[in-house]
Design goal:
The chain is an alpha+beta fold and 258 residues long. It has seven helices and eight strands, in the order αββββαβαβαββααα. The chain has an eight-stranded mixed β-sheet, sandwiched between helices. The N and C termini lie far apart (42 Å). Zinc ion binds next to loops.
Length: 258
């Protein structure tokens, strides 16, 4: 791909909103769509997994999936709003304690993060057993080059914010973390971006597992990996990659918008 300037690819702009109400509605619709896509990609594992979207008006509050509801069934109106203490302040279903412990810490530590995604997807958790970063072996994997971390300290099911804080610290300023022996965590400036990083990261884990099972993958040079990351790894590129999936899932499952 080489070091082409980022502006040669005409990428549409991330939408802006006139009111917090419009922005909230937008985030909740995108969040519901992200859950439907996670179900479509097979990322659910029982009741594990959560994607959060920061509320545009209320600091420290985020929208999340109700605990114990299948991703495939989630509509925008099913999402619950959780405050900084972990209390459900909108919606009458419970929140997953792990969702609060991980996501509240990440949202707190990273004011730039609008959305965060975590689930026990198969290839993500298989790769996470190795305690290694992903290598730049494909164009797609370059989105994560020098922009993800490994959180090595698995001590059981996350249920305390102190553990969430350690995960947030490991994540640092990156777009993703591999939670060793657990699964993947991705963040973004939009719901679209966080969901896309999760989808493509799971597939990059799958690709590296396949490649290493077959032989010794050839690494992309650092210079080319960084140049590729500039194009495929930006906030805007992450948001844009989600758009065809949004079109697909809203046409196929319009009830998610309810
Ligand atoms: Zn988990």
């Amino acid at each position: 791909m080489g070091a082409a300037p980022a502006n040669i690819f005409k990428i549409p702009s991330i939408p802006k909103f006139a009111t917090p109400q419009e922005e909230r509605r937008h985030r909740k619709e995108r969040l519901a769509a992200a859950f439907r896509l996670f179900a479509k990609f097979g990322f659910e594992e029982g009741v594990a997994g959560h994607i959060t979207a920061r509320d545009p008006e209320r600091p420290g509050h985020f929208w999340v999936n109700p605990f114990g509801m299948h991703f495939r069934h989630i509509r925008a109106s099913d999402l619950i709003l959780v405050n900084a203490k972990g209390e459900v302040v909108e919606g009458n279903r419970p929140v997953n304690v792990a969702a609060f412990a991980i996501h509240s810490s990440v949202h707190h530590a990273r004011p730039d993060v609008i959305a965060a995604a975590h689930s026990h997807s198969l290839y993500g958790k298989a790769w996470a057993t190795l305690g290694r970063l992903l290598d730049p072996i494909t164009q797609d994997a370059c989105a994560f080059f020098e922009d993800h971390a490994v959180f090595q300290d698995f001590t059981g099911v996350v249920h305390q914010t102190s553990e969430g804080e350690r995960i947030a610290k490991a994540l640092g300023s990156h777009k993703a973390a591999i939670l060793q022996n657990h699964g993947l965590l991705t963040v973004g400036h939009t719901v679209d971006e966080a969901a896309w990083w999760f989808i493509t990261m799971d597939r990059s884990c799958h690709a590296q597992l396949l490649a290493e099972a077959a032989g010794k993958p050839v690494l992309i040079t650092r210079e080319s990996a960084l140049a590729t990351r500039e194009l495929v790894g930006s906030h805007q590129a992450g948001w844009f990659q989600f758009q065809p999936l949004w079109e697909l899932v809203t046409q196929e499952q319009p009830d998610l918008l309810d």
